[in-house]
Amino acid sequence: MSSNEGGLDKAKLFSSKESKIATDQFNENRILGCGGQCMVYEGMFPDGKIVAVKKSKTVNEGHLEQFINGIIILS
């Protein structure tokens, strides 16, 4: 996910492959924070753009809806 209001982009969903590349395979040194259902990583794309990548810890459909709603609220 990334954001741009006052210099921040709107929320965007990235593919798993893009997220892994940006976060060095979700390297623990890139962890910015964690919550009950997700981890937030600092990511950087090849063009130098820095993003926060929110990764769900679960694939439960009920939790997935909460996860997506959390992203919408942040954007």
From TrEMBL:
Top-level taxon of origin: Eukaryota
Which biological process terms from the Gene Ontology are attached to this UniProt entry? Answer: cell surface receptor signaling pathway
Q: Does the keyword ATP-binding apply?
A: yes
Q: Which GO terms describe its cellular component?
A: plasma membrane
* Key word Zinc present: no
Entry-linked InterPro entries: Kinase-like_dom_sf, WAK-like
What Gene Ontology molecular-function terms does this entry list?
ATP binding; protein serine/threonine kinase activity
Q: Which UniProt keywords apply?
A: ATP-binding, Nucleotide-binding
Looking up PANTHER family in the UniProt record yields: WALL-ASSOCIATED RECEPTOR KINASE-LIKE 10-RELATED (PTHR27005:SF515), WALL-ASSOCIATED RECEPTOR KINASE-LIKE 21 (PTHR27005)
User: What protein name applies here?
Assistant: Protein kinase domain-containing protein
